[in-house]
From TrEMBL, chain B:
Enzyme class: ligase
Function: Allows the formation of correctly charged Asn-tRNA(Asn) or Gln-tRNA(Gln) through the transamidation of misacylated Asp-tRNA(Asn) or Glu-tRNA(Gln) in organisms which lack either or both of asparaginyl-tRNA or glutaminyl-tRNA synthetases. The reaction takes place in the presence of glutamine and ATP through an activated phospho-Asp-tRNA(Asn) or phospho-Glu-tRNA(Gln).
Assigned protein family: Belongs to the GatB/GatE family. GatB subfamily.
Protein name as it appears in the record: Aspartyl/glutamyl-tRNA(Asn/Gln) amidotransferase subunit B
Biological process, per Gene Ontology: glutaminyl-tRNAGln biosynthesis via transamidation; translation
UniProt subunit comment: Heterotrimer of A, B and C subunits.
The gene coding this protein: gatB_4
Pfam families: GatB_N, GatB_Yqey
Asn/Gln amidotransferase domain span: 333-481
InterPro entries the UniProt entry points to: Asn/Gln-tRNA_amidoTrfase_suB/E, Asn/Gln-tRNA_Trfase_suB/E_cat, Asn/Gln_amidotransferase, Asn/Gln_tRNA_amidoTrase-B-like, GatB, GatB_C_1, GatB_Yqey_C_2, Gln-tRNA_amidoTrfase_suB_CS
Keyword check for Transport: no
Originating organism: mine drainage metagenome
Amino acid sequence: MLNASIKQLSAALRAKEISSVELTQSYLDRIVRLNPQLNAYITLNPEVSLAQARAADARLAAGMADPLTGIPVAQKDIFCAKGWLTTCGSKMLHNFVSPYDAHVITQFNNAGAVNLGKTNMDEFAMGSSNETSHYGTVKNPWDRARVPGGSSGGTAAAVAARLCAAATGTDTGGSIRQPAALCGISGLKPTYGVVSRYGMIAFASSLDQAGPMGRSAEDLALLLNTMAGFDERDSTSLQREKEDYARDLNKSLTGLRIGLPKEFFAEGLSGDVAKAVEAAIAEYKKLGAVIVDISLPNTKLSIPVYYVLAPAEASSNLSRFDGVRYGYRAPEYSDLADMYEKSRAQGFGAEVKRRIMIGTYVLSHGYYDAYYLQAQKIRRLIAQDFTAAYKQCDVIMGPTSPSTAFKLGEKGDDPVQMYLSDIYTIAVNLAGLPGMSIPCGFGANDMPVGLQIIGNYFDEARMLNVAHQYQLATDWHSRAPQL
Amino acid sequence: MQWEIVIGLEVHTQLSTNTKIFSGASTAFGAEPNTQADAVSIALPGVLPVLNKGAVERAIKFGLATGARIAQRSVFARKNYFYPDLPKGYQISQFDLPVVGQGALTIQVEPLSGNAKPYEKTVRITRAHLEEDAGKSVHGNSQGVTGIDLNRAGTPLLEIVSEPDMCSAAEAVAYAKALHTLVRWIGICDGNMQEGSFRCDVNVSVRRPGEPLGTRREIKNLNSFKFMQQAIDYEVQWQIDTIESGGKIHQATILFNPDTGETRAMRSKEDAHDYRYFPDPDLLPLEISTEWIEQVRGTLPELPQAKQARYVSELGLSAYDASILTASREMADFFEEALGDATGQAKICANWIIGEVSAQLNRDGLDMTQCPINAQQLGGMLTRIADGTISNSGAKEVFRTMWAEGGSADAIIEAKGLKQVSDSGAIEALVDEIIAANADKVTEYRSGKDKLFGFFVGLAMKASKGKANPAQLNDILKKKLAG
């Protein structure tokens, strides 16, 4: 049952082979047993989860079930969920119980899914290792001395350790794909605007995008069907026809043109990752795909551009956390300015403060043109690189991360080294494109390697098809860590 | 020593939408604190702004009414600063791309002193932009605690910025009044200055003729025309005195204290904020189509100046009467409705409104919207004056009754027996009787004592109990007395 796909679980639920309450309880039991080793969850609410499971069972009995009805799904703690503690990994929100549901939560609730718990994450989604969480580091289920990646590290660890059927993540610069790669699971960041950001606590608004994380492309398609869709409460949500992301899963890949950007296979990529990715490309050739060499010349600029734009937006987005209306307030202060300073100094962690300072700096009078405006211009160039590339190919592939999971604490003192681990993922966010990561083997320390698949705008169905066909031909995605 | 005064205004008009500019919360004034503060108003984590089209429509209306260019694409920016009544830590405003571009407003200036004549002046409007209002800090309710009321947070404002085209307090007040009339006229703002719906910031500087502009100081938040005039007068004198006594003006934000009649500095330029404006990534650029502009143009009422010109050219009113009748939309509407199709009666209709109606309103301390008689009632009375049913004195009686007790002119004429006698036979009989009874006076009259005509009129009126049609009576008397 732990390794069953959502499709299989859904069939079992409909066939009354198992109830949602039983399924939910078994996951909760497993979480109680294994979470202390992994710290994948921040908040559990068993009574609420089981109540949802009972409601799902009633719905199943009434024959009104959706594909996700009764399926236990974990939610990244960045999504506001009514009645749930919603911390965003920060001390700043240690006491914030959301009075409302994010759009994503509403969609899962409407589908009858069970909210199994809120998963750990880097504070305000700022990090690539999950070490910046106020609620403690998440351990990689494949090797508990190593990081799970970030910022959706709790979700990735929970999925890999079979502590949920599937889960949600968010991706601002790689926060779905990189932890998916490091934990050996599948994750998809949709085209910007496909999933509403309403109720998703903002890091960098023009880059943030929610997406599904799970054990297979097929599962992701079902999750995305529930998550995607226009929402008038998010002005950047796109008004498009509802689509079935599973519709093309079984299409043949014969003639698929896969672009391999030479910049993704250059200096900085570790040999074990390169080897696994090259093997995956060879597998795709066997499936009938054609390889095209392409170039994304501005790739190297994506990190500096990202670390201007994302902190700029974050510095403003995080201003609301001032201790006035909700969240953490310093216990002692002398006046208003002191209250702000102490509350924010004590409520935010070091990485968040670093980014607020960078963002404040680049937006300041006299620096705005040189940093923010310049970065916006390069952002357009980066997007143009992809537009040009898609004239030659259908999807782009490469490594998700330059290395497999690194050791806890290994990069903690060197933010730039940490930032570089997102070199292959960031450009996708800057361009607003969809990107995903699927497991494609194991590297030097028997740690999982992720294959990144980047699609053209709104090409999620094709990407899922590309991933699914690979997963039919290989079994990397069904490998589970020993716990 | 000669001094020139240079004044520019920034006026915040609260737009008359039912809901806030970026959320569905009510904008009604006077509710219990925080009862109109929804999730967006209090800036809960994860909430997003959605632009209220009604606010945009009102901005377009203003632009069209001032002959300004409406930007096809304008951008909302974040103005970042910390204050407890600013829940997001930034205000959504417009910075370098406002919705309304350069326009102009022609004003009538009534000089405040001397025998100077009224004159016309055109003030250039630099721009007008949409933004959200902040909440309110409520001090002094309980010891040492400041309350925050976020009911007003997110109320739509149109900030209208003028060029420094005004060179006296009289001109500044005339401009502010004309603007106040205009925004109410086109129905975008209720103009209630007590409730803060129309707030003026006045930039004042002085210079010697021919010299470059002096350093300005900005008087904040004036909410009465009287205070505006007092504040400017005081500030101008203070600046002149300061410079003449060897001092320098430093840029500053100042407040006017109505109790002392003085201005004082609130903060100087040194502690001016760096607002770190940048485009709000949560909102798409505001695109306004030509069709939308034309649609709004179709809803625009005839503007005061056009109306004034038409009253003079088509209705033959004096410029003075026309300007008084167009001082407010209510007044003009009342006039036009009372007049109906009887354009030949324009002068008499104007006289009644400017005379009796205005005087009564003044006496009762009412404004046009509270007028106890409506335009149809007055129009009905004017019809009866025109068709000779009632005399002028009868009309005054009708008006008094109407004002105090209501009712139509016809009903009052009937009830009070005010119908004048226009039956020539009856008048002739009456005149014949008088001539017969006053043979001696008739002889005197016929021998040249013309002044006696009034004596006969008086007798005839008395005999008819005031109801004889005066014109008819005159004719008949003249004829009969002539022998």
